[in-house]
Fold this protein.
Amino acid sequence: MTDPASWPTGREIVLELPTDLGSIEHAVEYVIDRCEACANYAHRFKFNFRVSLAEALSNAMMYGNGFDPEKRVRVEVTVRDGAVTARITDQGCGFDPSCVPDPTAPENLLKVGGRGLFLMRNLLDEVRFNDQGNSITLILKLEEASGLEGGVQA
Amino acid sequence: MGFQVTKDGDITLVEVEGQLIVGNRQELKQKVLEHLEGGDRKFVIDFSNTGYIDSSGLGVLVSLSKKIRERGGELRLSSLNEDLRTLFELTKLDTLFRIADTKEQALEGF
């Protein structure tokens, strides 16, 4: 992991990560620590955003980059306008997020995988993909009035 | 971060310290399967000291539960904090596991 390339507004983090699952925890902690230094954010930031960022990174490395150590994952985190936004981009060919099955369907409950994107969509205010499907944007509002107030919600 | 494995009678207790995530899920799986292969059938995984679980961690719990059931055993969970319990409820995995409020409750009557 490299140090942040820049903090142009004092509120942006840019990381380039190797495809290494062992780097995820360190990267997530780094982002959380730097964002906490900016303001006293709500509990849902510390839990919902932490879990979601870890999910996005593991998906990028496992499914996007296919564990290829030559490929990297770019992370751009911005705190602006009452929200924290993280864009995670891998070097894979992308996928169609609409084709991911519902992991809570009875036929999928016993499956080992397939819950990452579901968790992100439930823990965050918004999840977007680029057209190619190799870049995901996570958005969590930090205002007290957010629908996710109080941490995770069903 | 790690896993502490102890025995309480015929029950194998695994305490998760830190996180259960993509980076350490295989370690948990290996430790539990070693005991399963050794003849243990009753397992409690306790989350008193667990910060968070990611989807890979949830997945390994599902996998272990299936393997233990296939051998006629049972996997129980305990001490999920409010955030972790909500993860199980969101994913409906709370319907797959017996979840006790405390480690002691999980061990009682097993």
